[in-house]
Amino acid sequence: MSGHDPLTASRRLDILLKHLNNEEDTNNNSKEWRTLSPSQCLTVCTNRDRKWNGYGYKDTFFKFDERGTAFSTGNRYPNFSSKEFHELRPWLEQTLRINLKTVCPAQPSIIELASPNVNHEFYDAIKPQGIMISFAEQDRLSHGHGISTAEIYKLRHGNFARIPDAVIWPETHEQVVAVVQAALKFNVGCIPYGSGSNDVDALECPEEIEKRMIISLDLRQMNRILSLSKENMYVIVEAGTVAQDLEKELRKWGFTLGWDAEMLEFCTVGGIASLRSDDIKRNMSGDLEHSVINFKMVTPAGTIQRNYINTSPISSGPNFQILFGTEGTLGVITELTLKIHFFASQHLYVPIYFPSFHNGLLFLREIAQKKIIKFSGARLVDEPGLQLVHAFNTTTPTVRSIFSEVIKKYYLKKMKKLEAGKMCLAAILIDGDDIVKLKVCEKKIGEIGKKYGGVIAGSDLGERMYFVSKRLPYLRDFLLDYYAISDRLDATASWTNVEVLVERVKETITNTCKAQNIRPRPYIGVRIDHIYDIGASITFTYGFNCRNLGDPLSVLKLIEQVALIEILRSNGSVTHNTSGIGKRKKETFRESLSEPVVKVLKSIKKTLDPTNIFCNQNLM
Amino acid sequence: MSGHDPLTASRRLDILLKHLNNEEDTNNNSKEWRTLSPSQCLTVCTNRDRKWNGYGYKDTFFKFDERGTAFSTGNRYPNFSSKEFHELRPWLEQTLRINLKTVCPAQPSIIELASPNVNHEFYDAIKPQGIMISFAEQDRLSHGHGISTAEIYKLRHGNFARIPDAVIWPETHEQVVAVVQAALKFNVGCIPYGSGSNDVDALECPEEIEKRMIISLDLRQMNRILSLSKENMYVIVEAGTVAQDLEKELRKWGFTLGWDAEMLEFCTVGGIASLRSDDIKRNMSGDLEHSVINFKMVTPAGTIQRNYINTSPISSGPNFQILFGTEGTLGVITELTLKIHFFASQHLYVPIYFPSFHNGLLFLREIAQKKIIKFSGARLVDEPGLQLVHAFNTTTPTVRSIFSEVIKKYYLKKMKKLEAGKMCLAAILIDGDDIVKLKVCEKKIGEIGKKYGGVIAGSDLGERMYFVSKRLPYLRDFLLDYYAISDRLDATASWTNVEVLVERVKETITNTCKAQNIRPRPYIGVRIDHIYDIGASITFTYGFNCRNLGDPLSVLKLIEQVALIEILRSNGSVTHNTSGIGKRKKETFRESLSEPVVKVLKSIKKTLDPTNIFCNQNLM
After folding, report:
1. Across the beta sheet with B455-456, what order do the strands follow?
2. Which residue of A210, A496, B101, B236 has the fewest C-beta atoms within 10 A of its own C-beta?
3. Which residues of B touch A313 (CB under 8 A)?
4. What number is the ipTM of this complex?
């Protein structure tokens, strides 16, 4: 099926060479030396242990106990599961005006799902090949959405106009080729599925226009590690491997992907590559493209792969990385060769308070540009963002309040110019094997911080800053029970543009809420997640009480649209951390492209997928 | 002419926003703060001071004096210009069997150049706009080739089937758009010209098939620095700016491009981007794509540029970097936003001898992967490569020979297992502002070297290793005078593949020479130029005496073809250091692509340049 497989190409070269040389060639297709092949099949991951109408695991959620104290269930997450959060309720009552007595329960199930539209010729073609397929409602529904607030809200209170007609779990690259070729032959639409953890509506099915059967292609049965080369520091994996599972395996060998993110928990490596999720990256690994050495992508026009050049550094001709970030609109990634790094045994978070957001930014800029210390992560939250971090505090109230008083006095004494609402907290993450060296590094970071009025926050705050963002989706779903709706958006900006962009976007969100008669004013927290020489990424987390709104989703959509436009108008890039463009951001993304580039994208689509088998309509 | 200019897009957003908000917008298109705009016009660079039939400047060449000692003329290069090279002649006599009495003089000029094919409608369209144009033979010839051995040989002893019919020097982006649109309207072919310093035959005109007038578009009048942002660490320049000129300007402000290469001397930044020349990169700057934040490219279908997102870090949607490395086949780059770095004032080369190539590689791999020290460059030469470095020695013979004896004894004593022909020399380049820290770093490098039997070569050898490769083209041209022809090829390979690839390519070159009755066996030197976590780049420099060959160029071509195929068969990538694919490597490059990718490239070409205005036929 692949138009140009390596063996044929190899034979062609041999013939060419014989012709040139008049010699017998050795035909020695030497493979890499000393390559390990663990070929370990990882634990198969399905959606059965995940909530049908919310983010994450069924056993993990927030609840108020009889005294009104928020606590979390389950035992999956250290520092989080089965903990009490004493400051959460008061803070939520104040900022989002939630009321424990005013609840907004989700529907127990979606009443009516359309029955599947089955293309029997297609089914007859793939059935004999032993490819797993399901038409069950629960499978179809769970594959028809991601975890955006809008999608979860629809699951709780509404319905989807269309969901996939069947879910298919291929087990090999060849099965994927067979499915795609059958889809091509019998005119079936196909939406690749990694883990369903995107929050940009990337998996929602096209509605009226799409009359064909739509299949969801769940790659998660393809989760084998095919090869691990310690010498060349790469791993070859099937694309359906969940990043976290792979990471666990790699650590056994002393390696790491160098990635980290809230999404890592569920994401498959293929999903990460196809959505170009920079959320996962750390300063160690660089941009996602730098992590990917090689790949295979099945398209209706054949399989895209590098011949010969399996794992050499590439630096010739056009850069085919255009295929990353195409979000399953052109084909399915089935295999990836990923760069690996040595795993460092020690991690140190260095949290520093700054008297203003401005000073915090100057500090981060110096860390990014001067390269005095080698860091793995850098974050910053503004004062509302810091309140959110504090709300996740799990220390008992007595200890906490005493401690808090001490801290307050201490910092206020040090930060004479502190204005209310202006404080921020930065935290640098450093990795290494030698704790003594990390301590030296910590000291240097403290010295840089001091130049901008920073004071080291000698506590667990740094680590909490990092883990809080990973657990926020659980809080978001919990809040929906109390008429508080929340969402997030992200952007990047040049260093000198960050403050303007932040102020303008905050103002835009606030003004839009005001115009929609939302009271009290929305909560808006700002976080810097990644820093670069040239700028930083910014995440806005916002929420408001929606009890008096007829249609909270349309208000949420309006806020998102005006905020995205404001980001573009402030010379920002419209996405960074979240998983791609999807349908959520495609209009604004389109605005950032020049006309010839739009034409190029359309021509690539036409070349690789002329009949629009990959019909998910993301991006454009 | 651009189908989608930023202002129109901005207006569209404004309208959209007003519609959403029912509000007056501020229409505040805020630009970046505090951006410097030196707008300095750099010295205009033409070809008049360069050789018409050789590499580099007219005033710089090798010569033998009356005693037969090789020396170099001119005063451009420290450590090179007007120096004597006492060991060069004996070495050349031994390895390439040159004979001072057997010379092969170049023709004084090319007798017959075809007169220009002028499209008068096109000329009439651009003339009134005041765009500089020349039909002079000398301009046309100098723009019809690069600096490959084959091209220089043709200039010395043959002719070109076709050269451009005119040379045009646009001065602004708008003039480029005007020229491209006129070419589109009146059916004229166009080949963008940066500096003519590629060695992959990228500038040779298509012959019989191309009946249209062909213009060479020399960008070097577009050499203004448009903006320099110290805060965001970028510089915006016109694409015709010569990288070295830009580097000099940047250093005045304390910055650097972080690039280095033999080509930097003449290359324009646009040429570097369009050929994706990784030659220029250092470990500081990373791959070329990471240096380029933004760009403008004029295509027949319109101007490609990012709207709004001028300088923010980008991490959304497909990666348009596919347009880098397209080698002027789709359009002309007119403007680039480049990342800049702080310039370090101190540089230290740490050269280390190893008893074998294998051990040298293990050392480099550890330097690349363990990241114990931060380095800017890493090189290695095998023993023949080391001989070449030694041949560039400029110390007087007495001092040299005494010194050499001392060194020899010292190292032989230390390296007990040393086999003849197996030694290699590695050199790590480290940068910084604090010489004490660099010395600490040097010590660490020495310790890593020691693990692999390395001995620090306490001399100027490290620096010489770096500069020798920059002056090799002058030596290559000089050797042509004495019937010695030489060339180079490069590749990349995984770490564990480097040795196999090197052995196989050397064997292939040697066997091919043998089959062609070339005596003595060819000189082949191997150099590692860049190192990565996953592998390294390899440059083969080879030469032989061609006095008895009827057609040295066809033999050279044969060697190149079999070597390139061997590189592919050894799982290497067919190019790295040289400037791109061009016409020289397009067949083998094609072999490294899968069929759907070839289709994608063709569809992009068809979309952006349907009438093949950019007719240079590079890449494919």
Report:
1. B455-456, B346-354, B424-432, B377-382, B523-531, B535-545, B484-494
2. B101
3. 492, 530, 532, 534-537, 573, 576
4. 0.87
